[in-house]
Design goal:
Length: 174
């Protein structure tokens, strides 16, 4: 008997195709600063039919972070460290992390802003799981940016701006 599901709801992490984050940024019209950031990411959720959670496998190069420190106003993230060592920047604190650690990053403001950095000499690999609620506002405390996102894929809207660059509600209205 064959499965009625186009893709089985199971996938071994060995089968996840990792995409270079700097190349992904270039494909999206941006440029990732590779002095502080570097790694690869592999989407899992669409491959196994996930609908309300996003999953990915992330591999971070030694001395780098995959993403800037950020917080989510709508979504919660969880990280499970598979291998390597690093540190978690969380709010104003820093914590060491290693294989087997589970990390909770609930929605919030600067107090829940988070970033994983590889402080070891081997790749830091972790499974990232998050809710996928939209609209979403992400805040980046190190650079003072805000990112408004309505979703992923066709028709999505994203707008990144810095705090203080906002307009009055009636600006430009006749």
């Amino acid at each position: 008997m064959t499965s009625p599901i186009p893709n089985p709801p199971i996938l071994n992490l060995d089968a996840v195709e990792l995409i270079d984050l700097a190349e992904r940024a270039r494909q999206r019209g941006g440029e990732m600063p590779t002095t502080r950031f570097g790694g690869r990411i592999g989407p899992i959720a669409p491959l196994i039919g996930a609908r309300r959670l996003g999953y990915n496998l992330t591999e971070v190069a030694p001395g780098k972070a995959a993403f800037p420190k950020h917080s989510h106003r709508a979504n919660e993230e969880m990280f499970f460290v598979l291998s390597g060592t690093g540190e978690l920047r969380y709010g104003d604190a820093t914590y060491p992390v290693r294989a087997g650690d589970v990390i909770a990053c609930p929605p919030g403001g600067p107090d829940t802003a988070h970033q994983l950095i590889n402080t070891g000499d081997a790749p830091l690999r972790y499974l990232a799981v998050s809710t996928t609620d939209f609209p979403e506002i992400c805040e980046y405390p190190d650079s003072g940016k805000l990112n408004a996102i309505t979703g992923f894929g066709p028709g999505e809207f994203r707008h990144i701006a810095r705090h203080g660059e906002g307009l009055d509600y009636w600006d430009g209205e006749a």
